[in-house]
Automatic annotation (TrEMBL):
InterPro entries reported for this sequence: PIN-like_dom_sf, PIN-like_prokaryotic
Gene3D superfamilies from the UniProt entry: 5'-nuclease
Name of protein: Nucleic acid-binding protein
Source organism: Pseudorhodoferax aquiterrae
Superkingdom of origin: Bacteria
Length: 162
């Protein structure tokens, strides 16, 4: 299962709202998060995610100290999201984030960054879900307040619903 992608909190929440959490684990890559992300996911059963293959990285003392230093630079991103940024930076793994500020910072720092729409595209491209199911999922995310680029969302919904 080749590449490993580091996923922040927003991704898990968006895909839970879409009813597509399980499907993420059918993609041809592995997903990982930090222990801080799991602490933020109150209404998603951690055992279920881990059972599907989620890798959970635990931050050690020095990493946690660096994390608090980064928190000041990334004002407004959550501790969990900054922990994913740090993990992606340390491991060279791509970052999956729905946090606009974190995405911009990660791109400035030369990290590979992908988001919710890219993951939906992957689900369709790898025939894990039908285009119609991806459209339903995206609309459910938006109905739950997902902050995604409107034009990109509308274009996908039109394409997938045809």
């Amino acid at each position: 299962m080749g590449r490993v992608y580091v996923s922040d909190t927003n991704i898990w929440i968006d895909f839970r709202h879409a009813g597509l959490l399980e499907q993420l684990f059918q993609l041809p890559f592995r997903l990982c998060s930090t222990d801080f992300v799991l602490q933020e996911l109150h209404d998603i059963e951690h055992e279920v995610l881990i059972g599907h293959g989620l890798l959970v990285e635990t931050m050690d003392g020095p990493a946690v100290q660096r994390l608090f230093g980064l928190m000041a630079q990334h004002n407004n991103s959550s501790l969990a999201d900054v922990s994913c940024y740090l993990l992606a930076q340390d491991t060279g793994r791509p970052l999956l984030t729905g946090d606009g500020r974190l995405r911009k910072q990660a791109m400035r720092d030369g990290l590979q960054v992908f988001g919710t729409l890219w993951l939906l595209d992957q689900l369709v491209a790898h025939a894990v879900v039908s285009p119609a199911r991806a459209s339903e999922g995206l609309q459910a995310m938006l109905a739950h307040g997902a902050r995604l680029p409107s034009a990109d969302c509308q274009q996908r919904i039109r394409t997938w619903d045809d």
